[in-house]
Specification:
The structure holds two protein chains of two kinds.
Chain A: E1 2-6, H1 16-25, E2 32-38, H2 42-50, E3 54-61, H3 70-82, E4 86-92, H4 95-108, E5 112-116, E6 118-121, E7 124-129, E8 134-140, E9 145-149, E10 165-169, E11 178-185, E12 198-202, H5 212-222, E13 225-228, H6 230-234, E14 255-259, H7 265-271, E15 276-281, E16 294-297, H8 300-310
Parallel strand pairs in A: 1-2, 1-4, 2-3, 3-10, 4-9, 5-9, 12-13, 12-14, 14-15, 15-16
Antiparallel strand pairs in A: 6-7, 7-8
Helix pairs in contact in A: 3-4, 5-8
Chain B: E1 2-6, E2 9-11, E3 33-35, H1 37-51, E4 57-64, H2 68-78, E5 82-87, H3 94-108, E6 112-116, H4 127-135, E7 139-149, E8 152-159, E9 162-169, E10 172-176, H5 188-194, E11 199-202, E12 215-221, H6 235-244
Helix pairs in contact in B: 2-5, 3-4
The chains are: A alpha/beta, B alpha/beta.
């Protein structure tokens, strides 16, 4: 009986979340198979086979899997699962995994356990509810467990050191009722928000898109990714993919610097597992100070440039 | 075109949720309940599609206890034309709700189902995708823009790195993300009018759906509280502490 991991990748390479999912899968059982469904995705399939703990990378290649719709990806996963032998289907709890996993679970007529943060046993999981203000321990009764896992809660499997084989399988036909017709993906030189070691986030107090440049200078100094509160995204200062929080990205960097963020529970849900939290806010009563390791009360427009200067190479 | 809008009754988002002393669940007694905020966005989008002439009728549906009638009345006050309560006191899990909704879809034959991307109580983010799978319909999750022309649906969706546009043939399922719209407030005249709109009640048995739970919640607990470390006086002290105490800067 095996574990099937659905890889998130961009065809050329695996997304970092995938290695964390492999890390979580190792706690569920073995052998671990990783499905890389894509187009010209040999690179990602090879990478999956080399990850520590992976017995086999299943590579399926077809043009309609290049940027697959949930319909096509789910159909492909089902074809693999129905060949039999899987006790678990595991995907990252990212936009990619959240989109497709429930479709697979419904087709298998099994429950899904979403956003798992700890594995108690192969059928029992811990997951956050109510924006992470409560954690539930849940036992799944179905024969096949469909699970999405929170990448930041599990150590990544080593990217190399595995000795898995790449096995090619035929693609199922294009379902054809829907297609992806466009993408607006921001290109950035900065690290990926969800996996960055340092994150600098801005809130409503930044007051404009222009002022986010202040954070860019600081982030460049630290090699950090830039995030934002929901308020800053809703105000249009930065695009939606910057959002950290319950309904945005969950991050757990070594250092999280919250600038002009008051600390609504929905935001805290997305960053409170960070190792060290710094808060900069002019309101000494802001809730963010209750969880910050280091709080600095002050005007961000003075403090942030000072901080950037202080971090200049000596 | 008929639009079906499933809505869920949840603990109001402003309420501080408390775990029962025995750890068996969350205390819902005497707590303010509201419509799941993402479902409110779904209702608003359906109403806007009707206002643009793209939809003729909006049917709100909720699965749960009799008290879900209040949530349905809210949907009616926001502009839904009629409502259906699938009444059950059971613990309705996402797969069961998706099956109940699929049965309602079979009776009502809508061309479009719009619902919130997730409910803010269990944060599962499953029902829309499961419903689409059970119906064999295409799905557009995490929608931030919805356009209907003829039999085609064009949706901008929020994905990890930005936005993605998907195009699909109706019928389809859309799940609403935060930035799809800003829901209107129900006006007093509309709240009064909503009391007279039709609200039918069905039972899961009548829909032929087995709602037996597939997962068991063994316990719930509050996470350990993270404690703040206090304030620093200035940037120099902050940087010194990050370097020497926290050791997160080189």
């Amino acid at each position: 009986m095996a574990i099937l991991v659905i890889a998130e990748h961009d065809n050329a390479a695996l997304k970092s979340a995938t290695l964390h999912v492999v890390g979580a899968a190792a706690r569920l059982g073995s052998p671990i198979h990783v499905l890389v469904a894509g187009s010209a995705a040999q690179g990602a399939a090879q990478a999956a086979a080399q990850a520590a703990g992976v017995a086999k990378s299943i590579h399926v290649d077809a043009p309609h899997l290049a940027q697959p719709t949930a319909e096509n990806l789910a159909a492909q996963v089902l074809a693999i699962v129905q060949d039999g032998g899987y006790t678990h289907v595991v995907a990252p709890a990212t936009g990619y995994g959240r989109n497709v996993a429930p479709r697979i679970a419904a087709k298998l007529d099994v429950a899904q356990v979403s956003d798992v943060t700890a594995v108690v046993s192969p059928d029992t999981f811990v997951r956050p509810i109510y924006a992470g203000s409560v954690f539930a321990t849940v036992q799944a009764k179905d024969a096949v467990k469909v699970v999405t896992v929170r990448a930041t809660s599990f150590d990544a499997a080593a990217a190399t050191g595995g000795a898995g084989q790449v096995e090619s399988r035929p693609a199922v036909p294009d379902v054809g009722r829907s297609r992806v017709t466009g993408q607006e993906i921001a290109k950035s030189e900065r690290p990926e928000l969800a996996s960055a070691r340092v994150v600098v986030s801005g809130g409503r107090a930044l007051a404009s898109a222009e002022n986010f440049k202040l954070l860019e200078a600081l982030a460049d100094r630290l090699g950090a990714a830039i995030g934002a509160s929901r308020a800053a995204v809703d105000a249009g200062y930065v695009p939606n993919d910057y959002q950290v929080g319950q309904t945005g990205k969950i991050v757990a960097p070594d250092l999280y610097i919250a600038v002009g963020i008051s600390g609504a529970i929905q935001h805290l849900a997305g960053m409170k597992d960070s190792k060290v939290i710094v808060a900069i806010n002019k309101d000494p009563e802001a809730p963010i100070f209750q969880i910050a390791d280091y709080g600095l009360v002050g005007d961000l427009f003075e403090v942030v440039p000072q901080l950037t200067a202080e971090l200049a190479p000596r | 075109m008929k639009i079906l809008v499933p809505v869920k009754r949840v603990i109001d988002y402003n309420v501080k949720v408390r775990v029962k002393p025995d750890g068996s669940g969350v205390d819902t007694a005497n707590v303010k309940m509201s419509m799941n905020p993402f479902d409110e966005i779904a209702v608003e989008e359906a109403v806007r599609l009707r206002e643009k002439g793209a939809a003729a009728e909006i049917v709100a549906v909720s699965c749960g206890a009799a008290a879900c009638q209040e949530t349905l009345r809210t949907a009616l006050a926001l502009g839904a034309d009629r409502a259906i309560l699938v009444e059950s006191d059971a613990d309705l899990q996402p797969l069961a709700v998706a099956k109940l909704l699929a049965a309602v879809v079979a009776r009502e034959q809508p061309q479009l189902v719009i619902l919130g991307k997730q409910a803010i109580d269990d944060d599962s983010n499953q029902v829309g995708q499961m419903l689409a799978a059970l119906l064999d319909w295409p799905q557009a999750t995490f929608a931030s823009k919805v356009e209907v022309s003829g039999g085609t649906l064009v949706v901008k969706r929020e994905v990890d790195g930005g936005l993605e546009t998907v195009e699909m043939a109706l019928p389809a399922v859309v799940t609403a993300d935060l930035r799809l719209n800003e829901p209107r407030y129900a006006t007093l005249p509309n709240i009064m009018k909503a009391k007279k709109k039709p609200l039918d009640t069905l039972k899961p048995d009548a829909l032929g759906v087995d709602v037996t739970p597939r997962t068991v919640t063994l316990s719930v607990a509050e996470p350990p509280k993270r404690k703040g470390g206090g304030l620093v006086a200035d940037v120099k002290e902050l940087v010194a502490k990050l370097r020497n105490e926290a050791k997160v800067l080189s």
